[in-house]
Amino acid sequence: MKIALHERIRQDFESRILSGELAPGDRLPIEQDIMAHYGCARMTVNKALSALLAAGLIERRKKAGTFVARPKVHSMILDVPDIAAQVRERGQDYGFRSLAHAVRQPGAGAEEERLLAGQGALMQVDGLHQANGVPLCVEYRLVSVAAVPDIVDADLHTMAPGTWLLRHVPWTEAETRISAVPAGAAEASHLHLPVGTACLSVERWTWRGAERITYVRQIFPGDAYDMVARFGPSAAAAR
Amino acid sequence: MKIALHERIRQDFESRILSGELAPGDRLPIEQDIMAHYGCARMTVNKALSALLAAGLIERRKKAGTFVARPKVHSMILDVPDIAAQVRERGQDYGFRSLAHAVRQPGAGAEEERLLAGQGALMQVDGLHQANGVPLCVEYRLVSVAAVPDIVDADLHTMAPGTWLLRHVPWTEAETRISAVPAGAAEASHLHLPVGTACLSVERWTWRGAERITYVRQIFPGDAYDMVARFGPSAAAAR
DNA sequence: TCGCTTTTAATGTATATACATAAAATGAGG
DNA sequence: CCTCATTTTATGTATATACATTAAAAGCGA
């Protein structure tokens, strides 16, 4: 496959930076020299360097030149796969068992509803994700009925509500919070663990524009689930 | 402050997408119409749209047009800031107390060394991150002496080794694993917790090219530290 | 209606040019 | 040697233009 010249220039510098050949603080050649080296116009070089700038790999100062950036935060891609897809990927049978399934009127329930900030009625859908019949994760979910009217009639007894939502609802933003919690009585019983066992809690708020769609809280036994994040070329490769 | 036109166009569309006014799948105007609307050249529009494309907010197909991208669940940006920087951001005093500091010869230690896969001598640097004097996190770290010779003479008793590495070691690739573990005897004592308390374990392997740099394992009390991942504005806002 | 070719409308890439802007480097005056 | 104005240099932005590339859409013949 033929790749664009500006893309090739970008990759060249990216790999020289990632390999350490160009260390943080090092100065890159000026645009004039780069364009002479590749035999192209300055705009082409500029496009390549602009991309590296947007990716945070370089810093540029007028008159001074272009420098390899010193990384500040590790901003990395976090893989949070759909549980059902992940289980099937391992060649196991995926199952979802419904634990609770009800529409709750606003104001009726107490604190959970604040999580979706009073957008009218909420559908509560709790359940258990299973791999080969073994409980893997307890899930507590609230869905805004106003934002997703179809949820009321959806068959969520076998299909995980997360999977259903993914297919039916477009969303634009999500926030995920990861923390460690001890297993409560309910989780302990469903996951067959002693009460107090260290578990991973993954909470996610999802919304579209200003409208909240869903809040979900998933509890995994600590040793059953690893979340893996990568930094580096993956960020570029993922696109 | 005066902002560039291509940047203004980019922001205009970004906010329309993030607000939900332009929903996933919606089609954007063609470049010709946008350039007519802003009264500028096509290259300027193209620059704005290229940035949105790189950020993953839109998809483009020749002849068909430009469309708001449907976000995929599984890849979101995870910001894992330097602990010291994060503590100071909250207006607290950051402190690091060294717990162990020694060079270990290859083969001497057992399993930890496999984590850096026998690249010669390793520097072991364990310590305690503190916020306002209160223990926040226990850190166990191994650094390859071959990859980072300067580490031997670095003063790591007050500065966190992570911070030191960030400043001295060129760009890296990293893989992070997050899980939940019960507090062991050592962590319990350092963090003033009962043994068995649910803790968040963050492990990270870092390398440059094929060379392994460091392995670190950080143990946080489950309720003291939340990792937050966002999809959407974060990618752009982080810059 | 099916399947093939042709047209066309959109993005993709690249160039040459122009002027703006900011900051480092220089140099004159004290 | 210091200070301040001037020059120089590298990046920042924008334009007008040209041609390439694709895939949708239209046309057409069997």
How would you characterize this protein structure?
- Two copies of one chain form a homodimer.
- The first copy, chain A, is α+β, with helices and mostly antiparallel strands.
- Chain A folds into two domains: 5-68, Winged helix-like DNA-binding domain superfamily/Winged helix DNA-binding domain (Arc Repressor Mutant, subunit A, Orthogonal Bundle), CATH 1.10.10; 77-229, Chorismate lyase-like (Chorismate lyase), CATH 3.40.1410.
- In chain A, 28% of the residues lie in helices and 35% in strands.
- Chain A is built from eight helices and ten strands.
- Chain A has helices at 5-18, 31-38, 42-54, 83-89, 111-114, 161-168, 185-191, 233-237, and strands spanning 58-61, 65-68, 74-79, 94-104, 122-131, 134-144, 173-182, 198-208, 211-221, 227-231.
- In chain A, a hairpin with a 2-residue loop joins strand 8 and strand 9 (211-221).
- The two termini of chain A are 17 Å apart.
- The model of chain A is unreliable at 232-239 (pLDDT under 50).
- The interface between A and B is large, with 65 and 63 residues.
- The structure holds a DNA duplex (30 and 30 nucleotides).
Question: What key attributes describe this structure?
Answer:
10 strands; six-stranded antiparallel β-sheet; alpha+beta; DNA-binding; Arc Repressor Mutant, subunit A; Chorismate lyase; homodimer; two-stranded antiparallel ribbon; elongated; 8 helices; 239 residues; disordered C terminus
